[in-house]
Design goal:
Helix content is about 45%, strand content about 15%. The protein has helices spanning about 10-15, 20-30, 40, 55-75, 105-115, 135, 155-175, 180-215, 230-245, 280-290, 315-320, 330-340, and strands spanning about 50-55, 80, 95-100, 120-125, 140-145, 220-225, 250-255, 270-275, 295-300, 305. It binds 2-deoxy-2-amino glucitol-6-phosphate. 2-deoxy-2-amino glucitol-6-phosphate binds near residues 57, 103, 153 and 356. Keywords: Aminotransferase, Glutamine amidotransferase, Repeat, Transferase.
Length: about 350
């Protein structure tokens, strides 16, 4: 049967709306196997000392989120490789290579894997296509189970990759005793909250973003700031905005603002800030505010877009979750789509781009 938009104006709208259900499906399937380490043990892979994450575009961003979980929660050394730049990377023994690709057919990634010396590494594919070339080449496959994604802009597959990868990472850390069980319990509870958090983020975003977007239609450039894995979300937000609206967008770690990018900020410059709970973000916001920048704060209660932290226990974990706040990606997707539609763009088929890039 052919796939339709199911009452939505476009596939992107449908795929954004599907995210809570996609998350629920993955969490229901994987969460019961996290804490006993069996999710990881079932992949039957040798022990690893370090991790290399590799991919392109949004899949690479998903990999960075998972890498953030592995290094901050398990003190695992993690390196990230942009697939098109990976050819000369030196692979140390006992490296776990996490290769991420929605399609599993991206030429830059497949070629990188072919050229790298993986003889002393194990290769795990995190893909939405278990029958893909990537899946066939991997030692083990983690399927994302997001269902077909038609819109060129990756949305639900990003969320699916991150949840799948973080679940596997937690399970690996438990299995190798790199993580306290009590921490693993808290993070696995956090995974179980994701469907609800994503649904809340969708509702809030649709409520508050239209008037914000209406005020920035003529802005030529957008800045995205974050900290920790919030920097990755900032990168993902900037990528979505570029590919859908054809406007310039840049992402930066918030602390880097004062080392150069602050010069971009003028009266009215839109600055989207992913506030993951680290109080140092306030300083960056004050710097933007003093120059008349238009701040869109995506964070907890009291933010411009209050999507982070609903129903989550307060305390240190809330501010330092290490692999999130994943729900903050939702307003970034909706912001980019709303802006693109207001500018008359085709959000399912942006110019110059293909869903699966099978040339180098
Ligand atoms: C994301 O919105 C893009 N369309 C693009 O960056 C994409 O994620 C990239 O081309 C990788 O594709 P893959 O996941 O199929 O490998």
């Amino acid at each position: 049967a052919s796939i339709g938009v199911d009452g939505h104006p476009d596939f992107m709208s449908k795929e954004i709306a599907e995210q809570p259900d996609v998350a629920a499906r993955i969490v229901d399937r994987l969460a019961p196997h996290v804490l006993d380490g069996s999710l990881w043990a079932d992949l039957a892979l040798p022990r690893f000392d370090r991790v290399t994450v590799i991919g392109c575009g949004t899949s690479l961003n998903a990999g960075r989120m998972i890498g953030g979980a592995l290094s901050s929660l398990g003190r695992v050394p993690v390196r990230t490789l942009v697939a098109s730049e990976a050819a000369d990377a030196v692979m140390e023994p006992r490296t776990l290579v996490l290769a991420l690709s929605q399609s599993g057919e991206t030429a830059d990634l497949l070629n990188a894997i072919e050229r790298l010396d993986l003889s002393r590494s194990s290769l795990v594919a995190i893909t939405n296509n278990e029958h893909s070339t990537l899946a066939r080449q991997a030692d083990s496959v983690l399927t994302c189970d997001a269902g077909p994604e038609i819109g060129v802009a990756a949305t639900k597959t990003f969320v699916a990759q991150v949840i799948t990868g973080v679940a596997a990472a937690l399970s690996a850390l438990v299995a190798s005793e790199r993580m306290l069980r009590s921490d693993a319990v808290r993070h696995s509870d956090e995974l179980r909250l994701m469907p609800e958090l994503l649904a809340h983020a969708i509702a809030v975003s649709h409520e508050v973003l239209p008037s914000i977007v209406a005020g920035v239609l003529d802005e030529p450039g957008f800045l995205f700031l974050g900290q920790g894995t919030g920097v990755v979300l900032a990168a993902e937000g900037a990528l979505k905005l570029k590919e859908l609206s054809y406007r310039w967008a840049e992402h930066q770690p918030a602390g880097e603002l004062k080392h150069g990018p602050l010069a971009l900020v003028d009266r009215g410059t839109p600055v989207l800030v992913i506030d993951s709970g680290d109080p140092r973000i306030d300083r960056s916001i004050a710097e933007v505010d003093a120059r008349g920048g238009r701040i869109v704060r995506i964070g907890g209660p009291g933010s411009t877009v209050p999507v982070v932290g609903l129903g989550r226990p307060a305390g240190p974990m809330a501010g330092a979750r290490r692999w999130g706040p994943l729900e903050a990606v939702v307003p970034l997707q909706i912001f980019a789509r709303d802006l693109a539609l207001a500018l008359g763009r085709d959000v399912d088929k942006p110019r110059n781009l293909a869903k699966s890039v099978t040339v180098e």
